[in-house]
UniProtKB/TrEMBL annotation:
<dbReference type="Pfam" id="PF00670">
    <property type="entry name" value="AdoHcyase_NAD"/>
</dbReference>
<comment type="similarity">
    <text>Belongs to the adenosylhomocysteinase family.</text>
</comment>
<dbReference type="InterPro" id="IPR015878">
    <property type="entry name" value="Ado_hCys_hydrolase_NAD-bd"/>
</dbReference>
<keyword id="KW-0963">Cytoplasm</keyword>
<dbReference type="InterPro" id="IPR000043">
    <property type="entry name" value="Adenosylhomocysteinase-like"/>
</dbReference>
<feature type="domain" description="S-adenosyl-L-homocysteine hydrolase NAD binding">
    <location>
        <begin position="187"/>
        <end position="348"/>
    </location>
</feature>
<dbReference type="GO" id="GO:0005829">
    <property type="term" value="C:cytosol"/>
</dbReference>
<feature type="binding site">
    <location>
        <begin position="295"/>
        <end position="297"/>
    </location>
    <ligand>
        <name>NAD(+)</name>
    </ligand>
</feature>
<protein>
    <recommendedName>
        <fullName>Adenosylhomocysteinase</fullName>
        <ecNumber>3.13.2.1</ecNumber>
    </recommendedName>
</protein>
<comment type="function">
    <text>May play a key role in the regulation of the intracellular concentration of adenosylhomocysteine.</text>
</comment>
<keyword id="KW-0520">NAD</keyword>
<keyword id="KW-0378">Hydrolase</keyword>
<dbReference type="InterPro" id="IPR042172">
    <property type="entry name" value="Adenosylhomocyst_ase-like_sf"/>
</dbReference>
<dbReference type="GO" id="GO:0006730">
    <property type="term" value="P:one-carbon metabolic process"/>
</dbReference>
<dbReference type="GO" id="GO:0004013">
    <property type="term" value="F:adenosylhomocysteinase activity"/>
</dbReference>
<dbReference type="InterPro" id="IPR036291">
    <property type="entry name" value="NAD(P)-bd_dom_sf"/>
</dbReference>
<feature type="binding site">
    <location>
        <position position="186"/>
    </location>
    <ligand>
        <name>substrate</name>
    </ligand>
</feature>
């Protein structure tokens, strides 16, 4: 039977299989879930559309969902993040329809989303909420058949909560991003390592001694700041939230407005989920040779239109590095076209971190399938017991043991009579 797909090259499948299997070695929690899914088939017959980064780690999630009985279609959540050998392997070796090509243009990107929706999904799985947005804006004929979905990212959760607040959200969404075993690890350790990895792969520069500006001190920003400092960079944090700014100060970083940081920074990374965090006035103040990167979900955090308008020439000087020659003679360097630098210029998060994130996605899909009929059309957080179970499985896989409360301790914590 022919599998619906649009991929770059099916002959890349053998390489993709080898890399998917390598990632699986670092994903023991997802493996345990997959084994249970194979036995119980909790997603039997459920049509799913997943819009995720098509990487080796995502492949292991897709296989788990398939083995749980889901009728899954997968498309990319970023035009530059697809690993073409992985897409080929999923189609050719694992029988999963994939619509994703690395470097696809905007029109192809959205055509792929539409193709992934063609089987009329009952569940959606998003990384940035593009599938949800497409359903609500362009495919409302399919909306009534969708009973629930999950969302992977901070950016996507922000969009979905805005929709829910406006009464526009058409079905319940589980915010996988809000799980402690997701944002405390994926966002901090995963983004921290993979963002720095992407910058170094793209530029081969030495971070030690550089002034490294981190825009946003959420969990992703914390991770990048920590890793950059660990490699010897002088880290500056910019923030709009006074509590997060205070935390950055207490963590030992310099904190200042972007207008000031722009004058002294060598490397800039945005991780806010907002628009034009680096704007024209900041670009005008930057030093010759400054490097710009984004690790937020969309390519809107750096004002690319302003950068282009200020430039009299542009050329690619290395893979994933574009040199913009400004009209005043300065040169600024943009990494990965302003898209997610950890995926545009590197391989994304390590598999050991995505093990927990995708365990949340798999169990989240199971939970929402079981509970969708009694849920309202709003954004829900992952149940705490699911979060704890994933942490327990991860510790077990790592050979780490922890204490458990005694009956006496449990009674004490649930009582109010005892005190000083």
């Amino acid at each position: 039977m022919s599998i619906p797909c649009d991929i770059a090259n099916p002959r890349l499948a053998p390489e993709g299989v080898r890399r998917i299997e390598w990632a699986a070695r670092e994903m023991p929690v997802l493996r345990l879930i997959r084994e249970r899914f194979q036995r119980e088939k909790p997603l039997r017959g459920i049509r799913m559309t997943a819009c995720l980064h098509v990487t080796t780690e995502t492949a292991n999630l897709a296989i788990t969902l398939r083995d749980g009985g889901a009728d899954l279609r997968l498309c990319a959540s970023n035009p530059l993040s697809t690993q073409d050998d992985v897409a080929a392997a999923l189609v050719e070796e694992y029988g999963i329809p994939v619509f994703a090509i690395c470097g696809e243009d905007n029109a192809t990107y959205y055509r792929h989303i539409h193709q992934a929706l063609e089987h009329g999904p009952q569940l959606t799985m998003d990384d940035g909420a593009d599938v949800v947005a497409t359903l609500h804006k362009e495919r409302r004929d399919l909306l009534a058949g969708v009973v629930g979905g999950t969302e992977e990212t901070t950016t996507g959760v922000i969009r979905l909560r805005a929709m829910a607040a406006a009464g526009a959200l058409g079905y319940p969404i589980l915010a996988v991003n809000e799980a402690d075993t997701k944002h405390l690890f994926d966002n901090r350790y995963g983004t921290g390592q993979s963002t720095v990895d992407g910058i170094i792969r793209a530029t081969n520069i030495l971070l030690a001694g550089k002034v490294f500006v981190v825009a946003g001190y959420g969990w992703c920003g914390r991770g990048v700041a920590s890793r950059a400092r660990g490699m010897g960079a002088q880290v500056i944090v910019t923030e709009v939230d006074p509590v997060k700014a205070l935390e950055a100060v207490m963590d030992g970083y310099r904190v200042m407005p972007m207008a000031e940081a722009a004058k002294v920074g060598d490397i800039f990374v945005t991780l806010t989920g907002d628009i034009n965090v680096i704007d024209r006035q900041h670009l005008e103040a930057m030093k010759d040779g400054a490097i710009l990167a984004n690790s937020g979900h969309f390519d809107s955090e750096i004002n690319l239109k302003a950068l282009q308008a200020m430039s009299e020439g542009k050329r690619q000087v290395r893979p994933s590095v574009d040199e913009y020659r400004l009209q005043d003679g300065r040169k600024l360097y943009l990494l990965g076209e302003g898209r997610l630098v950890n995926l545009a210029a590197a391989e994304g998060h390590p598999a050991a971190v995505m093990d927990m994130s995708f365990a949340n996605q798999a169990l989240g899909a199971e939970w929402i399938a079981q509970n969708a009929q009694k849920l309202e059309k709003k954004v829900y957080e992952i149940p705490h017991e699911v979060d704890e179970e994933i942490a327990r499985l991860k510790l077990h896989a790592m050979g780490v043991q922890i204490d458990y409360l005694t009956e006496e301790q449990q009674r004490y914590l649930s009582s109010w009579q005892e005190g000083t």
